[in-house]
């Protein structure tokens, strides 16, 4: 049985950082995750939060139905509670599966920064509040 982890941001952020190769501490962050049998199996970190935008990093080791709940929590927190207009995601262009996954979540390609990743360009993607299907109704 998978459960949401809503109040252990340091634990979730550490796990996500390991999955996405984050080698420095997150700045001004919050994190939510999913655990199964006491282990984190999915997580989201948002950081560099301002009045309009936050960077969003997603890692999933074991998909489950709880991941859908995780995205709803993320959307509610960012778009309703913080009043953000958008989330920014990034992915190296030599990781097409990561880019495709982000697009399935609703992110759209915004621009590509040349030579900004190890041996690749870096794609920047955006998830707009008004287009977010994860935002709970009501």
Give a written overview of the molecule.
With 138 residues, the chain is of the alpha+beta class. The chain folds into two domains: 1-84, 3-Layer(aba) Sandwich (Aminopeptidase), CATH 3.40.630; 88-132, no CATH class. 28% of the residues lie in helices and 39% in strands. It is built from three helices and seven strands, in the order βαβββαβαββ. The radius of gyration is 14 Å and the shape is globular. The two termini are 28 Å apart.
Summarize the structure.
By secondary structure, the protein is of the alpha+beta class.
Q: What fold name stands as the CATH topology of the largest domain? A: Aminopeptidase
CATH superfamily of the largest domain: Gcn5-related N-acetyltransferase (GNAT)
Helical/strand content category: alpha+beta
- Total of helices: 3
CATH class of the largest domain: Alpha Beta
Record keyword descriptors for this entry.
single chain, 138 residues, alpha+beta, Aminopeptidase, 7-stranded mixed beta sheet, 28% helix, globular
